[in-house]
Structure formats: C-alpha cells, structure tokens
Amino acid sequence: MKINELKASPGARPAPYRKGRGVGSGNGKTAGRGHKGQNARAGGGVRPGFEGGQMPIYRRLPKRGFNHKRFDDKLIAINVSVLERFAEGSVVDEAVLKSSGAVSMPKVNASIKLMGYGELTRKLTVKVTAFTAGAKEKIEKAGGTAEEV
Q1: Which of 9, 39, 120, 121 is deepest in the core (most CB within 10 A)?
Q2: Which residue spans within 4-123 are E strands per DSSP?
Q3: Which regions of the chain are under pLDDT 50?
Q4: Could you give the C-alpha distances from 106 to 59, 64, 69, 98, in angstroms and in order?
C-alpha cells in the first residue's frame, strides 16, 4: 500500500455542513448568526480574551512574580549531604533541621523532602515528610533509619 492509495473508511469523513443555502435547509438566511448585532457582521466579534468590558484577567493579574497559594509547592527539598553536620546516632526531624539552620522555611506550612544528592557516613534516624528512593537507600546504607511522618 502506498500513501496515495490511502482512503478514509466510509462514514469517517461526513460532508461539511453548508450554511446559508436557503430557508429549506434549516440554516439559511441568517445562517445561525441571529439578527444583526456584532457577531452577525462579517469580520465581527470580539478579540480573544475580551470579557464584555470587564477588566480582563490578563490585566487583573500582576505581570511578574505572582504565585497563587493554591498552586504553591508545599515541599522544600534538601539533600542527604546536609545531614552530615549532625552527630552520630542522633534523631533528625523537621524541628531539628529548622533550628540548626540546615533548612530555611520561607513557606508557612511547608514540609521537607530529602533528596539523594551527596554522601552520608553517619548513622542517623531521620524523620521527615518524604524521601526519594536514593535518599532512603543512602541513609540505610550508612546504618540509619528513614521514617516518613
């Protein structure tokens, strides 16, 4: 089969609807545009984004630096290498990370996710919201435990 031999199966391509072809067609005369008015005219209608005179959304929102809290990321990512500053056998949770300055919390209700970059040589018990598979593996390889809270 060649590309010039391809043909749509019967019924796959219905004939286009022909507007404005007499009153008997059911869509003649005004051809579905109603009587007069802006949208009835050739070339009529409103531009994309027009909201009927209301201040449009592209003018209501700031042009830069706008982050809606609904879509705000609630996780703060830190790397395994940050844990190297803690003493052997200690319990590291979100409060300890914040108080030690290992992580700054710019977001009010943010949680911490541990990523797998870096090396860990100390045995620690780590309690944070989430871990990547690599981070969990490195903590357990060092002899520690990784607990999701």
Answers
A1: 120
A2: 75-79, 91-93, 111-115
A3: none
A4: 28, 19, 13, 11
